[in-house]
Amino acid sequence: MPSSEKHPSRVPMWRGAKAAYTVIAACISPLAIGGFWAYGQRIPKNGGLQSAFYAYRRRDTSQFIMGLVSLLIIVNALSSFQIYAMPMFDELESIFTKRMKRPCQWWLRVVLRAFFGYGVFFLAVAIPSIGSVGGLVGGIALPVTLAYPCFMWLKMRRPRKYSRMWCLNWGLGIIGLILSVSLMAAGVYVIKENDNKFQWFKPK
């Protein structure tokens, strides 16, 4: 996006980010609230809301609706994978461009993305209990989203000590670190509990 002093790119980008996260919140929040209101503690730990829907609504819901729900979940998973894997796709293309000294062609991009997708799928099937490591990995990565931006802002802007923004950023950063440590502790506990259930190539 072109940027200049008169028309900085951060203004439309900030508007786009706010609009995008508003749409995400508008889509996900009603689903989470409605799902918990409908099923509550009956939602299984593996499978989430989809498993609860199939377990409790299979008999009184048409096959068309059940198939449509499954189709929407597949579309959501495929779309999300493309977004979250984009940094890896860019890295693979960058490595190819640096080594071969030429741009990455479209068919090679397709091949790289397909092989990466198959590799991730293979790992998911080969190590089905890798989901229990998710809490630990999420706890390690959580400060990047919740804590580091606050501390970076404090380092760059250097607001007056004990001002409103200084207190807000310090508070949010510390809360983010506390949540991260709590999530890592929970992740270690889950790994320890599921240690004896680890089996290769036996997804549940």
From TrEMBL:
GO MF annotation list: symporter activity
Entry keywords, A to Z: Amino-acid transport, Auxin signaling pathway, Membrane, Symport, Transmembrane, Transmembrane helix, Transport
A Gene Ontology term for the protein's cellular component: endomembrane system
Transmembrane region(s): 20-39, 64-85, 106-127, 133-154, 166-191
InterPro entries from the UniProt entry: AA_transpt_TM (IPR013057)
Gene Ontology terms: biological process: amino acid transport; auxin-activated signaling pathway
Location of the Amino acid transporter transmembrane domain: 6-190
One Pfam family in the UniProt entry: Aa_trans
Membrane topology, from the record: Multi-pass membrane protein
Localization per record: Endomembrane system
Cited function: Carrier protein involved in proton-driven auxin influx. Mediates the formation of auxin gradient from developing leaves (site of auxin biosynthesis) to tips by contributing to the loading of auxin in vascular tissues and facilitating acropetal (base to tip) auxin transport within inner tissues of the root apex, and basipetal (tip to base) auxin transport within outer tissues of the root apex. May be involved in lateral roots and nodules formation.
UniProt family annotation: Belongs to the amino acid/polyamine transporter 2 family. Amino acid/auxin permease (AAAP) (TC 2.A.18.1) subfamily.
UniProt-recorded name of the protein: Amino acid transporter transmembrane domain-containing protein
